[in-house]
């Protein structure tokens, strides 16, 4: 049946991007005759997708508008093949680590994708607190996720995000795009005939904890102590029943069986006068957490005509997170304006302002002052309510209530008095002028800015475990970046040959400075000011400036829209490199062939076949101030610290070489699309820091060395199985696999088997081995016999300890996949998305400590033994070299404490495979005849959810785990992770 259509057909083609095509001709139902998708590539140049020799996947605004996230990046999870979003599980801001096609650098911080907003690259800098995730007993502070530049981008203002995955796709952006780039295009005015359109988007969502560890509430606090009658007992302080057993953090005490003991009495802050019922408090960890609430309201105005367009947007988001007294609010304002001054001259501007403010963000990590630490040490027989008064009577602001250990801070003291405040103001924007000299030749001038001003405060009260006399800190961070570029474009047709040439240059300047003031101890408790400092430490601000000058060019040619060829070249001059190596050039070449048109293969059942390939080489400059010796201001006024890292005055740029090839198909009237990509990326001559002999006066030095290879496959499938007037079903799936291999190590390690890139908690080693992979985790394992049985010490009954570390696994999965479904039933829309990964492991500090202390379900094994002992399953080594079953009994506390000791990485490392129902949404759009009397053009009501369900064998909160070390998100380690939120919300969208 043929009919006239005048509506916009929204189809997903080739698994790359969404297609917006107005069909204004007579076509068969569900058929499309042309596919001319336009995507935004490097430098903001718009290209037809079919002309590209590399993958450019596009995610449209609906993804970010429909499923509201505190951080828009989380909306990309599972939707783009080869893209990994990693957070540290450290609170509501959810700073993200975005990688494309695996890890390429020995340095974790050098693997991030570049973020580009409206053609202007962002520095996306993060300043940490200067502390590691594992900090027990250090007496210092701990990491806090205070957000990065990504947090400031408002999802309601995003028009689209185009993901350029390889160096070929991002070659024109220079060294910072060696790991790929995310091209964000913000919205601009789109209304018709100059009519003013007003849009309102409001959402309200509720957060609860997605997953809890398997706590045990059958046995209480204690260490298997027995009274004079030979019975297990408990006593808070010495009593008639026996010695005190209330000072331990372990839960190897008596079983809850209706007995009575002398316990803690909160009314007298000491031992109860009478014996109290021995009972568990099953809500004494979960009850601390609240239902989080997030509200977001956005209003925008836009208008456009044939010469001008504008859009203005205001958004306010208020978040009350699941941990009491934590959360943030964010205000965003966006403005865009385009105007044709003449038929040849056009100016446009876009500016975005974000103000993120919080009185308190949660701290993370394994440290006395983190709520994670308290949850680990909380015992089953301890009522959470005993901590609520916070302060001892008459000792307000002086001495906290922490009745079981002075090393475990009161959870309400942590929530309401250990405050981590921040106010971050960020402005991004650009002004662009375009002049067309004639129909073939044009020039663009663009100036972009990123201005960040951040103020932080840290408050620590009296009697906190690490600051007995309190602590106060103020930090003032300024990070400004200026990008100015010019681009000339020449277009010319020579019969069937089409030529497009671009040439230009840019200057990028970045300045960063931080002022840091610390009050070590407070004269008056509760007075948080620098004037109240017992000892005031003022650090002279340390600047960090850098500049890169560049020239670049792009030559694009095609023959009759059948064969396309791109050649690019760029030369950078970086201030971070020495004069002789400061200038470096890198090229790329890519091509695509529309085979379906070349061989005239198009038919109703087979529509499109494209072959593409590309090669690129990118130079990567280092960080500033690595060439010379610079002194660091110390904590003592007027003094400096000698640098511990020896600089390299002959530093060279890294080399990143990328090759990729693939094919795109569509069939069945373009209702089925598929693409596949194969790639290889080699990173060599890396700028890395290696240890050196202490006799040199330095602990490390900077060198060029090492080579890493990534190979992978990416596939995407899009389908429209059903489509009728009242029902349609669209489906999208993606799968990606990356294999990483270390080809060479620095020459200093030629005689050794590995190079330790990083360590976590003093027991987990990220070792680089030739033939191994980045992300390989090493640590002590169990000693086993040739049959794989655990070998025990016949004298102690505890596992034998190995004399060397071994590989335990890799932090990164073997493959990742995502699946999205979208159903439209008349005015209803139902959508849901799954994603997951297979393989990968992570070490869990929480599992170690809670197992050591008998807090988890699996530690119930052996508890019924009246002797309080257990025999480890395994063997012992006999003098003659044979093995026999282990029969040596050992106390439960000693067994679990040793089997799951912190250094035993094997027993505390787990598979991080998972499947998640990442998001779901049910929406109803009212028909126009219903809303017309209300002067509305659109009204949609929806209910949505995020992280609604999860399958995993990982025993802690979430398998998507990483440690926050200072500002570095370190995958493969769970060090005091905070719970992940399950979200359910409501949304209303209206336009008039």
Automatic annotation (TrEMBL):
Subcellular location: Cell outer membrane
Mode of membrane association: Multi-pass membrane protein
Signal peptide range: 1-23
InterPro entries: Beta-barrel_TonB, Beta-barrel_TonB_sf, Plug_dom, Plug_dom_sf, TonB-dep_OMP_SusC/RagA, TonB-dep_OMP_SusC/RagA_CS, TonB-dep_rcpt-like
Keyword entries, A-Z: Cell outer membrane, Ion transport, Iron, Iron transport, Membrane, Signal, TonB box, Transmembrane, Transmembrane beta strand, Transport
A Pfam family the protein falls into: Plug
Residue ranges of domain TonB-dependent receptor-like beta-barrel in the record: 428-948
Domain TonB-dependent receptor plug: 57-181
Residue ranges that the Swiss-Prot or TrEMBL entry lists as coiled coil: none
Stored NCBIfam families: OMP_RagA_SusC, SusC_RagA_signa
Sequence similarity: Belongs to the TonB-dependent receptor family.
Protein name, per record: TonB-linked outer membrane protein, SusC/RagA family
Naturally occurring in which organism (per UniProt): Chryseobacterium taihuense
């Amino acid at each position: 049946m043929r009919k006239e259509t005048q509506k916009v057909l929204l189809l997903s083609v080739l698994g790359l991007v969404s297609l917006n095509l107005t069909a204004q001709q007579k076509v068969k139902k569900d058929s499309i005759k042309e596919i001319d998708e336009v995507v935004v590539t490097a430098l903001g140049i718009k290209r037809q997708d079919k002309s590209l020799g590399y993958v450019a996947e596009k995610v449209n605004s609906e993804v970010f508008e429909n499923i509201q996230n505190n951080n828009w990046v989380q909306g990309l999870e599972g939707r783009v093949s080869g893209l990994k979003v990693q957070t540290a599980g450290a609170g509501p801001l959810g700073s993200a680590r975005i990688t494309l096609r695996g890890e390429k650098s020995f340095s974790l911080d050098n693997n991030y994708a570049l973020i580009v907003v409206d053609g202007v690259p962002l520095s996306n800098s993060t300043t940490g607190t200067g502390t590691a995730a594992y900090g027990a007993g250090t007496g210092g502070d701990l990491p806090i996720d205070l957000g990065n530049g990504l947090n400031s981008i408002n999802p309601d203002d995003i028009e689209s995000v185009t993901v350029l995955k390889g160096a070929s796709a991002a070659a024109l952006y220079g060294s910072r795009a060696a790991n790929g780039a995310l091209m964000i295009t913000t919205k601009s005015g789109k209304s018709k005939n100059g009519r003013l359109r007003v849009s309102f988007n409001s959402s309200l969502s509720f957060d609860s904890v997605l997953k809890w560890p398997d706590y045990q509430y059958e046995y209480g606090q204690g260490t298997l102590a027995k009274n004079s009658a030979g019975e297990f007992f408990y006593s808070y302080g010495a009593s008639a029943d026996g010695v005190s057993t209330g000072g331990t953090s372990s839960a190897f005490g008596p079983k809850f069986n209706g007995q009575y003991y002398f316990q803690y009495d909160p009314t007298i802050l000491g031992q109860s006068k009478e014996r109290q019922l021995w009972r568990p408090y099953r809500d004494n960890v979960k009850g601390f957490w609240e239902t989080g609430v997030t509200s977001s309201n956005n209003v925008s105005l836009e208008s456009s005509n044939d010469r001008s367009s504008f859009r203005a947007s205001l958004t306010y988001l208020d978040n009350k997170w699941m941990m009491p007294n934590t959360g943030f609010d964010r205000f965003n304002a966006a403005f865009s304006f385009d105007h044709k001054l003449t038929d040849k001259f056009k100016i446009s501007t876009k500016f975005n302002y974000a103000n993120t403010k919080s009185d308190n963000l949660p701290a993370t990590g394994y440290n006395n002052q983190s709520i994670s630490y308290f949850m680990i040490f909380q015992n089953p027989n301890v009522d959470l309510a005993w901590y609520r008064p916070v302060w001892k009577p008459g000792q307000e602001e002086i001495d906290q209530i922490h009745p079981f250990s002075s090393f475990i801070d009161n959870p309400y003291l942590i929530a309401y008095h250990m405050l981590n405040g921040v106010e971050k103001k960020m402005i991004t924007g650009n002004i662009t002028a375009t002049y067309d000299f004639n129909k073939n030749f044009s020039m663009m001038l663009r100036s972009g800015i990123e201005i960040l001003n951040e103020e932080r405060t840290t408050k620590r009260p009296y009697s906190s475990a690490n600051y007995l006399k309190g602590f106060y800190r103020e930090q003032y961070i300024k990070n400004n970046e200026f990008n100015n570029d010019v681009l000339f474009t020449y277009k010319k047709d020579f019969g069937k040959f089409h030529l497009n040439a671009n040439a230009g240059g840019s200057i990028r300047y970045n300045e960063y400075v931080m002022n840091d003031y610390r009050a070590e101890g407070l004269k008056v408790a509760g007075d948080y000011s620098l004037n109240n400092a017992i000892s005031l430490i003022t650090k002279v601000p340390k600047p960090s400036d850098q500049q890169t000058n560049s020239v670049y060019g792009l030559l694009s040619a095609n023959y009759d829209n059948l064969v396309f060829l791109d050649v690019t070249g760029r030369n950078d001059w970086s201030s971070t490199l020495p004069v002789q190596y400061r200038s470096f050039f890198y090229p790329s070449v890519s091509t695509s062939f529309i085979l379906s048109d070349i061989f005239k293969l198009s038919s109703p059942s087979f529509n499109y076949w494209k072959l593409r390939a590309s090669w690129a080489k990118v130079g990567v400059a280092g960080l500033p101030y690595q060439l010379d010796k610079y002194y660091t201001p110390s904590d003592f006024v007027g003094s400096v610290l000698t640098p511990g890292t020896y600089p390299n005055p002959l530093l060279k740029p890294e080399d990143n070489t990328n090759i990729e090839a693939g094919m795109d198909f569509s069939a069945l009237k373009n209702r089925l699309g598929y693409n596949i990509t194969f790639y290889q990326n080699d990173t060599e001559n890396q700028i890395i820091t290696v240890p050196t002999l202490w006799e040199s006066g330095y602990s490390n030095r900077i060198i060029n060395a090492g080579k890493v290879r990534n190979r992978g496959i990416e596939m995407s499938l899009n389908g429209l199985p059903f489509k009728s007037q009242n029902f349609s079903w669209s489906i999208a799936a993606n799968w990606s696999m990356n294999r990483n291999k270390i080809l060479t190590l620095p020459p200093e390690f030629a005689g050794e088997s590995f190079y330790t890139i990083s360590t976590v908690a003093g027991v987990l080693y990220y070792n680089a081995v030739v033939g191994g992979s980045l992300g390989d985790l090493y640590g002590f394992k169990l000693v086993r016999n040739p049959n794989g049985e655990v070998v025990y010490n016949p004298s102690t009954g505890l596992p034998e300890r190995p004399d060397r570390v071994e590989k335990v696994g890799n932090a990164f999965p073997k493959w990742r996949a995502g699946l999205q479904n979208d159903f439209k039933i008349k005015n209803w829309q139902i959508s849901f998305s799954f994603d997951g990964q297979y393989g990968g492991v992570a070490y869990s500090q929480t599992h170690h400590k809670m197992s050591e202390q008998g807090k988890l379900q699996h530690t119930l094994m052996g508890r019924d033994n009246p002797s309080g002992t257990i025999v480890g399953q395994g063997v012992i080594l006999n003098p003659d070299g044979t093995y026999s079953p282990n029969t040596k009994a050992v106390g439960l506390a000693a067994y679990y404490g040793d089997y799951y000791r912190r250094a035993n990485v094997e027993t505390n490392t787990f598979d991080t495979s998972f499947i998640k129902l990442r998001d779901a949404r049910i929406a109803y759009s009212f028909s126009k005849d219903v809303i017309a009397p209300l002067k509305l053009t659109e009204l949609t009501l929806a209910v949505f959810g995020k992280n609604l369900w999860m399958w995993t064998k990982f025993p802690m909160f979430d398998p998507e785990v990483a440690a926050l070390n200072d500002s570095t998100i370190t995958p493969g380690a769970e060090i005091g992770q905070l719970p992940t939120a399950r979200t359910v919300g409501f949304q209303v969208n209206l336009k008039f």
